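no rush on this but wanted to send it before i forget. what follows is a protein written twice so to speak, once as letters and once as structure tokens for the fold. mainly i need to know what kind of three dimensional shape the backbone takes. thanks a lot i owe you, the record is right below.
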Amino acid sequence: MVRKSRRRALRRCNSLAPQNTPPMSRLSWFPTRRWPSSTLLLLLVGLLSRQPGLRVGLQAVHTLTCPRWGTPGNRGLFRDGEIVIGGLFHVHYTPPPMDNDFTDEPRYKECTVLEHLPMQYIYAMVFAVEEINRNPTLLPGIHLGYHIRDSCASHPWATQAALSLVSGDSSSCNPEDIAEDSKGVPLIIGGASSKTAIVLSRVLSPLSVPLMSYQSSCPCLSDRRQFPNFFRTIPSDIYQARAIASLALYFKWTWIGAVVANDDYGLVAVKLFQEETLGSGVCLAFLETLNRPNIASDARRAALAIKASSAKVILVFSWYTEVREVFLQLAQMNVTDRQFIASEAWSTSGSLLQNPITSKVASGVLGIAIRSSPILGFENYIRSLTPFRRPDDDFLTEFWEQEFACRIPDGSASTPSANMSNPRTSLPLCSGEESLEVVDNLFTDTSQLRQAYNVYLAVYAAAHAIHNRLACPATTSRDRSSTCSSTKDVKPAELLQHLNEVNFTTPQGERLYFQGGDIPPKYDLVNWQKTPEGSLKLVLVGHVDGHDIHLNDTAVQWSSGSLQVPSSVCSESCPPGTRVARRKGEPICCFDCIQCADGEISNTTGSSNCERCPVETWSNTDRTACIPRQLDFLSFNETLGITLTTVAVSGTMVTTAVFVVFLYYRHTPVVRANNCELSFLLLLSLKLCFLCSLLFIGRPSAWACRFQQAAFGISFVLSVSCLQVKTIVVLAAFRSARPGSGALMKWFGPGQQRGSVCVFTCIQIIICIIWLSLSPPEPRPDFDTPGLKVTLKCAMDSVVGFSLVLGYIGLLACTCLLLAFLARKLPDNFNEAKLITFSMLIFCAVWVAFVPAYVSSPGKYAVAVEIFAILASSYGLLFCIFAPKCFIILLRPEKNTKKHMMAR
């Protein structure tokens, strides 16, 4: 049945089109689903006027018999003037249910429940118009009027009211008829919600009628291609999301829960919030959406998520009705320690502030609010309103009868109260002594003028656009005789152009201009604080101006009741000295803190990387700063230095003692049989070996570095040379005992022995001189060794020179060892070959082990290894060569005879 009636209606509409109308201009292309009448109208107007492929052009519509959509009611607030501006406010809500069968035009009944706050918006517009009319510099000689209608908080009602305002007295929808024959308004202030503003803007755009909203904040409305006729005096939600993101970053909240309305307002806002905090370490612990049809279950789910989460800061982008349900669930769960961040949709809600449940759950709320500004004289204006002086004001009459429970005597026939379910005849007559001075509700409360102030600004923006269109005198002129040009030709399209160019200062001293359709963003920062009585009050703690946030931190009372900013993090920020190590598979806000390695620091909180200290510095124990590295060397004061010094001095003393013994017993066979002259020279060289080890202890200097290596190389060459010559003498002595070898000893007499030692030693001296002249060792810190303490050591710039010194010593030692090994089995008790063999074995073993030990030892311990090698090899030579002889001299004197020495 419904389909048949719809087809009949479509055929009837198509029959109205002329025969030459293109097929696409007929209405039969509409989808066959059951559309609401308001949607059909929007599709018709929008598609015909905006889509090239479907455009009939308004020319085709002109040819239709297009009557006004519905008959507008008489309810409203009207005042005529040379120029009249329109107003749409949702004074009532709860429209009656409507069932359209598409056989008759929609019939819209009146809405019933009166809202107090939109009443304030209406009189803010009226007050601004009357203030402008009294202003001698703005629109001089021109009286503005207003036509204000009720949008009933629903876009079908708003659309009908807007078309009624635009068409005026005309019964046709022909734009030319509207412009020429009617008294339609050239501009409308309205669109209380973004949805309504989108609908109205699309409907009014083909007619080029500007729509100026005071409360529609959807970012989508900033698109000038889709909404070229839309303006607003409230900032876009983009700036609200940015401001809240800035607050999160300012207070270092990185772990935040989000509860949003499941619509464009909530979802777009939370998306913008995430985009603004991207890369700043802010994460959403959870995201819960609220659907109004399922608010009971959704609110409980959101409350459970809040309770289970470790996030202490909860961001709520929703409407106050949904927020109230969430707070009710949280109160039942006894969750009272969360810090809520409020969007402007509920941050100033009086019903939430006065709710005792809210004071238990949501004290300390920090929110973004539409900026508030006082309007001079507006409070007195509101308080002085009375229907007895405004008999044609239907809205005020209805409010008066409800507020004071009385009936206006002479308005019974025209007031809407006559048609209400409760007969108004049962009400007593108003005495005329009633006054709004004693009334305290949202209508009379002018302490926080927010949306009302936006309406006030919209009226002034419209007035300045009209002022510029009419080429009125400059606003600084005080000449009352100056008037504007004719007001008959003010067309909406012209007013639309001048609105884009307005730039003026409001009576409050605020600069107002439009960027596209938006004004520069300004917000208030509000805080819900507990009073001594336990209730909540709204306190202004800062404001947002563009991208700048001005907040008085000390004025904020947090959810805990203290001035301490709550912390909301998944992981505490890594302190200086540590770095962030993210946990695999978890959000970036959840991480571990790992201490910086040695030589690295981080001096900021939450550092993601540790920085390497410069080579001359090292990290302190806390890894927070680079401090100069401490020079370290083997000193005489430390235990190791004392020990090595003691061993070296002891070796010197023992060598001296042996020298004295040999000197005292120099005429005995044991001393004489072992080449006493070389023995004394060997003892002298061993004493130098012991003493040269002391040069390696203490703070290295340039001369100490040069002298220690030269003394080391020369003294050891002297020692090994003596042993080598002694070994050669032994071999020559036994070889000369053979027949025909008597002349061999002539070449190894005392002079040749001393000369050989001198030659061997001079070679080392020449090597040392060349090395120390070309590239001597220099005292230099060893920065390659990690640690706070850096060893000051003698750096070998020429490894070749040092290698030659050691290599020459090794060559002599190996030669000596080979010769001694060959002479080890020669007879006679005075043969030293065995002793020299053992001493050379010890000497070579020590210095072969020295190389890897020296290379692998860090810092000053490498020096200690070299000293140990010097002392060990010196002691080895001393004891292996001289210990047996001293034993005989001192303890076995009976063996110290020529007979015993010649026994074999």
Q: What stands out?
A: The two ends are 147 Å apart (CA to CA). The first strand starts at residue 77 and ends at 79. Residues 746 and 752 are 9 Å apart (CA to CA). The chain has five domains: 2-62, 77-235+375-513, 237-370+521-555, 578-630, 639-775+791-835+861-901.
